[in-house]
């Protein structure tokens, strides 16, 4: 994303403006994702995330340096994984489903944040027509830009983490549904250990061939969630029209 920004022809002030917007949106999307993992694990009975300082929305507790850099540069990335002990989960009878709840918590948080951001982006877009000029107009425009990127980053994190490749959440959910015997075969363990390299190979191949393999996959996964959020926004569009926005 930063590469595209530098190639956009914007002046220095505009680039700085969008970098600030990117960083704030990025921190919010990552923080909510990891906080949700931590809060659900704690709610289900495991104090590990709290003891490790992860039960917070402070972005410094959740940002992974490499994942953050990749997201800013390439448009995809990850946060610092939340560690938890499945043996401590005891709120419900099925440990398998509690593990699934923990792994889906992050993308659920991103979906909720994306939906809220979409509504706020719509609101500030409407307010631009009545904000006039000067500081109020600048503030409204900045907030509209901010929430549009919070939406974009949240959707990206949601879709990227649903890819069923280790160590992403989508794989861990799939893993919980697989037969016990399969998960302990040599072939499965080899696949799990080598899969993170697959992501790097796909990323490098996309970079040098200009074929957006990973971004295309992420875009496809985003489609149903985009439709759901669009549906959620409909009554808010009607409400804003009724009140004259």
Describe the structure.
- The protein has helices at 2-6, 12-43, 48-51, 65-74, 95-127, 135-161, 169-177, 186-209, 213-242.
- It has 9 helices and no strands.
- Helices cover 71% and strands 0% of the residues.
- The protein is mainly alpha-helical and 245 residues long.
- It is globular.
- The mean pLDDT is 85.
- The protein starts with a helix and ends with a helix.
End-to-end gap: 32 Å
Number of strands: 0
- Report the structural category: mainly alpha
> Helical element count?
9
Average pLDDT confidence is 85
**Major sheet: size, sense and barrel closure?**
none
Q: What is the general shape?
A: globular
List low-pLDDT spans.
none
Strand content: under 5%
Fraction of helical residues = over 70%
H-E string: HHHHHHHHH
- The Rg value, from CA coordinates, equals 20 Å
List keywords for this structure.
single chain; 245 residues; mainly alpha; 9 helices; globular
Provide the fold topology:
Blueprint: H1 2-6, H2 12-43, H3 48-51, H4 65-74, H5 95-127, H6 135-161, H7 169-177, H8 186-209, H9 213-242
Describe what is shown at a glance.
This protein has 245 residues and is mostly helical. 71% of the residues lie in helices and 0% in strands.
């Amino acid at each position: 994303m930063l590469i595209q920004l530098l190639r956009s022809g914007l002046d220095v002030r505009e680039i700085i403006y969008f970098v600030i917007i990117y960083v704030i949106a990025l921190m919010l999307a990552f923080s909510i994702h990891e906080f949700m993992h931590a809060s659900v694990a704690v709610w289900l009975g495991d104090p590990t995330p709290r003891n490790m300082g992860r039960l917070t929305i402070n972005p410094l507790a959740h940002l992974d340096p490499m994942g953050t850099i990749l997201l800013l540069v390439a448009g995809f990335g990850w946060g610092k994984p939340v560690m938890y002990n499945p043996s401590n989960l005891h709120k419900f009878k099925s440990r398998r489903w509690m593990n699934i709840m923990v792994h889906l918590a992050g993308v659920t948080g991103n979906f909720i944040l994306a939906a809220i951001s979409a509504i706020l982006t719509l609101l500030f877009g409407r307010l631009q027509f009545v904000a006039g000029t000067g500081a109020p107009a600048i503030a409204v425009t900045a907030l509209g830009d901010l929430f549009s990127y919070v939406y974009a980053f949240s959707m990206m994190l949601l879709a990227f983490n649903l890819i069923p490749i280790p160590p992403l959440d989508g794989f861990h959910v799939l893993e919980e549904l697989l037969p016990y015997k399969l998960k302990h075969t040599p072939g499965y363990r080899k696949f799990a250990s080598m899969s993170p390299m697959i992501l790097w190979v796909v990323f490098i191949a996309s970079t040098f061939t200009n074929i957006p393999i990973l971004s295309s996959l992420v875009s496809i996964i985003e489609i149903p969630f985009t439709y759901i959020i669009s549906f959620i926004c409909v009554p808010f569009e009607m409400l804003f029209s009724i009140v004259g926005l």
